[in-house]
């Protein structure tokens, strides 16, 4: 069976290689000498690109995690600052400071004057 395959595959190409019973030397295909090194180079280049891409991805993920930690810390500080602001601006504290440190007092009803003609009430 192997002999039959050889005879079948030989066909016209076999007769073209033989001239008067002498076998002609095999000629390599024109792309065979260039194609293998080019493909090898492309495989190596793509493997290097995969390694660099993986490294870059890991580095960026690490940077993302660091930025998320920083964002959480900033949000905590923002919450503390809002609490501090509400404490400093509480009406009771402002009232107490106005009376104690600035000696301010609410006006008597006799001293208050109503101004008409301004705004919506006017």
Secondary-structure element order, N to C: HEEHH
User: Approximately how much helix is present in the residues?
Assistant: 55-70%
Q: Could you say which structural class the secondary elements and strand pairing correspond to?
A: mainly alpha
Q: Could you name the ranges where pLDDT drops below 50 across 5 or more consecutive residues?
A: none
- Oligomer state equals single chain
Number of strands: 2
| Share in β-strands | under 5%
Average residue-wise pLDDT: 82
Shape: rod-shaped
Rg computed from alpha carbons, rounded to a whole number of angstroms: 46 Å
Largest sheet: 2 strands, antiparallel
User: For the largest beta sheet, what order do the strands appear in spatially?
Assistant: 1-2
* Distance, first to last CA: 116 Å
Number of helices: 3
What does this structure look like?
The chain is mainly alpha-helical. It has a two-stranded antiparallel sheet with strand order 1-2. It has a domain at 39-102. It has helices at 2-17, 32-88, 91-100; strands at 18-19, 22-23. 68% of the residues lie in helices and 3% in strands. The mean pLDDT is 82.
Sum this structure up briefly:
The chain has 122 residues and is mainly α. It has three helices and two strands.
List keywords for this structure.
Cell_div_FtsL, mainly alpha, 68% helix, single chain, 122 residues, rod-shaped, two-stranded antiparallel ribbon, 3 helices, membrane
Q: How is this fold's topology laid out?
A:
Layout: H1 2-17, E1 18-19, E2 22-23, H2 32-88, H3 91-100
Biased composition (Basic and acidic residues): 99-114
Subcellular location: Cell inner membrane; Cell membrane
Main location: membrane
């Amino acid at each position: 069976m192997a002999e039959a395959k050889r005879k079948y595959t030989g066909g016209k190409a076999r007769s073209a290689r033989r001239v008067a019973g002498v076998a002609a030397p095999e000629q390599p295909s024109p792309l065979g000498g260039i194609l293998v090194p080019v493909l090898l180079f492309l495989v190596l280049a793509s493997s290097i690109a995969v390694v660099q891409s993986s490294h870059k991805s890991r580095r960026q993920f690490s940077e993302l995690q660091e930025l998320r930690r920083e964002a959480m810390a900033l949000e905590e500080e923002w919450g503390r600052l809002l609490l501090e602001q509400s404490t400093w601006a509480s009406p009771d504290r402002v009232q107490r400071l106005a009376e104690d440190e600035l000696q301010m007092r609410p006006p008597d009803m006799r001293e208050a004057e109503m101004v008409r003609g301004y705004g919506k009430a006017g």
